[in-house]
Design brief:
Blueprint lengths: L1 E6 L7 H8 L6 H22 L12 E6 L4 E6 L6 H9 L6 H10 L3 H8 L10 E9 L8 E5 L4 E6 L6 E8 L9 H11 L7 E14 L5 E11 L16 H11 L8 E7 L5 E7 L6 H4 L3 E5 L2 E4 L14 E5 L9 H6 L1 H24 L1 H21 L1 H7 L4 E3 L5 E3 H8 L10 E6 L6 H9 L4 E3 L5 H11 L3 E5 L5 H4 L12 H15 L4 E6 L8 E4 L2 H11 L6 H5 L4 E6 L3 H7 L4 H18 L5 H24 L1
The structure holds adenosine-5'-diphosphate.
Length: about 650
């Protein structure tokens, strides 16, 4: 007997085709929506009971999902508050948006399915993405309520009749259409439940599974096992982020980490987030051990809303520099159907973002102060986060400048203040600027590093992918400080002091030396100068100016407006140490060809020490060296 027929009040005949088509890409979220509704209805009845507004037994509150491959149905059943026929009309038939016109307008602008579902409260209707027909069988918790049945074939026509449920709660039955039969496969449903329902607060049962159970002992006294069918409860209803930090041990955090990421190594440390004002947020963030491949590790933070998984694209909620972290964030202030454009505009999201930044900074500061040694040991893993954060978020920099470490070639770590204190006496130039020296490749720049160390200068190691940017940031932030790569120039010019060394060469001799080298090098991109350096400095030093190198690096990384620099040839400065005894020898060598050969040899040695001697030049160098040794033998034999 049909009790009532009617039209779903949206005044637009073709809304379902639109929803279906529009939501095409994320069909699987229908299950998330329906299971969430079932969980909400269950939570509501629990709350009514605890408030004394519902006095019957709550009974078994689990939500059940059943697939019937023959009937081609999926049924989601709960023992929640249920609905009366009136409530169905109110909640299901009147789609919660202010008008069809608005819907039609907004849906054109919307960028993804979530946005539409969220904005218009269409959670339940996502069922029509996969079903031709949807049926509700429900019995309200209210005294004297009658069971009700609602059925709709995806047009705007629906039907409400008497239902057949005898227990409080709701069944939603989906008659899966032919294009979506993948959802009749058990493993597919299990997969979706694992993704969205793994930490829901109400037990979710999906059929049964077989397991083995002890079954007495055999003759040898060994335990026997038997195969038994047990309910397949797919979720953990009390994940650790719902508990107080005081209830938890390190082991609990580690176990949960491995539950989330079964293949990952232990994390370095974690932060338990817990706020209730001005927004609600709980969660646990883990600092993973960094692998080289950053990209693969991105998008590992899972976002939940009241234990329902929403997304692992947390780009706007978590500051960019913390995207490498792992873990979970749960906030009821983020709606289930969260969309990108919503996140970007939402003011809670901005607050969450800065809260997380602050918590992470506080935790790092605490680790640093509590156990500096352990902190230093972790620095190679966390340094990248900290530097990235310092560059990208001013508020983070304000805190991080106290626990940011600089490491040098001796593998010692200093804070910014400590480092300034350490080097300022020796490394201040004549204009009162402190010059920090660094290497980005200690092996390649060893000759320069050794020269610096010989003068008791310190050399920082800045070899991570982010250090280029970090150096610029430090220069901007630190007063009267310059940061120069150790091979950017000869030391006397990197840290220029008052007392200029005097030339042992006369002006004419200097000119002559310059000519000899220019001829030997025979390359217009090498600018030769003869300098009065200390006698123990290298005879020939090849450098590229700091600014030129940075421009070129930026051009390579695709920096805007830098292409011009990228197109310039590599220009180098060749400093000849006029005070080195080898230069004297070259000047006094027998004839011009010998002078050129020796100069070429000295130049090639400089190239060689910087890994710049390659191919045919390298072969020629080796041949020439062999000959030179031969010549010396001939000389020795003559004597
Ligand atoms: P939302 O959940 O965002 O309100 P839905 O379209 O998913 O939007 O659901 C509309 C309403 O229908 C819910 O707010 C609830 O009142 C009712 N409802 C849906 N599913 C159930 C259920 N399993 N048990 C009881 N009420 C339900």
């Amino acid at each position: 007997m049909v009790q009532e027929k009617g039209t779903i009040s949206i005044h637009t005949e073709n809304i379902f085709p639109i929803i279906k088509k529009f939501l095409y890409s994320d069909h699987e979220i229908f299950l998330r929506e329906l299971v969430s509704n079932a969980v909400d209805a269950t939570q509501k009845v629990k709350r009514l009971s605890s408030l004394g507004q519902y006095n019957k037994a709550l009974g078994d509150l689990r939500v059940r999902i059943a697939v019937d491959e023959n009937a081609k149905t999926i049924t989601i059943s709960d023992s929640g508050i249920g609905m009366t026929a009136e409530e169905i009309k109110k909640y299901i038939n009147q789609i919660a948006f202010s008008g069809a016109t608005e819907f039609m307008e907004k849906f054109k602008e919307a960028k993804d399915a979530n946005e539409i579902i969220g904005r218009f409260g269409l959670g339940f209707y996502s069922a029509f993405m996969v079903a031709d027909k949807v049926e509700i069988q429900t019995l309200s918790y209210q005294d004297g309520a009658e069971p009700a049945r609602w059925i709709c074939d995806g047009s705007t026509e629906f039907e409400i009749t008497e239902g057949n449920r005898t227990e409080r709660g709701t069944d939603v039955i989906l008659y899966i259409n032919s294009e979506n039969e993948e959802f009749l496969e058990k493993h597919r449903i299990q997969e979706i439940l694992d993704k969205y329902a793994k930490f829901l607060p109400v037990p979710i049962q999906f059929g049964t599974r077989t397991t083995s159970e002890p079954d007495g002992e055999d003759e040898k006294g060994e335990t026997k096992y038997k195969q038994v069918e047990v309910d397949n409860i797919i979720n953990n209803t009390n994940p650790i982020w719902t508990k107080q930090p005081s209830e938890l041990k390190d082991e609990d955090y580690l176990n949960f980490y491995h539950e989330l990421y079964p293949l990952a190594e232990d994390p370095l440390f974690w932060i338990h987030l817990n706020v209730d004002y001005p927004f609600n947020l709980t969660g646990v963030l883990y600092f993973p051990k960094l692998k080289n491949d950053f990209e693969i590790q991105r998008n590992k933070i899972k976002l939940f809303s009241r234990q329902v998984f929403i997304t692992d694209e947390v780009k706007d909620i978590v500051p960019e520099f913390l995207m490498l972290l792992h873990g979970v964030i749960d906030s009821p202030d983020i709606p289930l159907n969260v969309s990108r454009s919503f996140l970007q505009a939402d003011s809670n999201v901005k607050k969450i973002n800065s809260y997380i930044t602050r918590k992470v900074a506080d935790k790092l500061g605490e680790l640093f102060r509590k156990d500096r040694k352990a902190y230093e040991e972790k620095w190679s893993d966390i340094g990248l986060f900290v530097k990235y954060g310092a560059i990208s978020e001013e508020k983070f920099w304000e805190k991080a400048k106290d626990f940011l470490l600089l490491s040098n070639t001796q593998k010692a770590h200093h804070t910014l203040d400590e480092y300034n204190e350490k080097v300022k006496t020796l490394q201040t130039d004549k204009d009162g600027r402190v010059v920090y020296l660094y290497t980005n490749d200690a092996e390649k720049q060893d000759a320069f590093i050794q020269s610096a160390i010989k003068r008791s200068y310190d050399v920082l190691v800045m070899d991570s992918p982010i250090d280029n940017h970090f150096i610029q940031h430090l220069e901007m932030k630190l007063e009267k400080t310059s940061i120069k790569r150790v091979d950017a120039d000869i030391l006397d010019r990197l840290i220029q002091k008052e007392d200029n060394l005097t030339h042992v060469l006369t002006e004419d001799e200097s000119k002559k030396v310059k000519e000899i080298f220019e001829k030997a090098i025979n390359n217009s991109n090498m600018n030769v100068t003869v300098e009065p350096l200390s006698a123990d400095e290298l005879p020939v030093t090849i450098t590229m100016e700091e600014w030129m190198r940075r421009m070129k690096e930026m051009a390579r990384m695709g920096g805007g407006g830098m292409q011009f620099y990228g197109s310039l040839p590599d220009n180098y400065k060749v400093a000849i140490n006029g005070n080195h005894k080898l230069i004297n020898r070259i000047l006094n060598a027998g004839d011009e060809s010998q002078q050129t050969a020796l100069a070429k040899q000295a130049f090639d040695l400089a190239l060689l020490s910087q890994g710049m001697l390659k191919g045919a030049d390298l072969t020629a160098f080796v041949e020439r060296s062999v000959n030179l040794i031969g010549d010396n033998e001939a000389v020795a034999n003559k004597a």
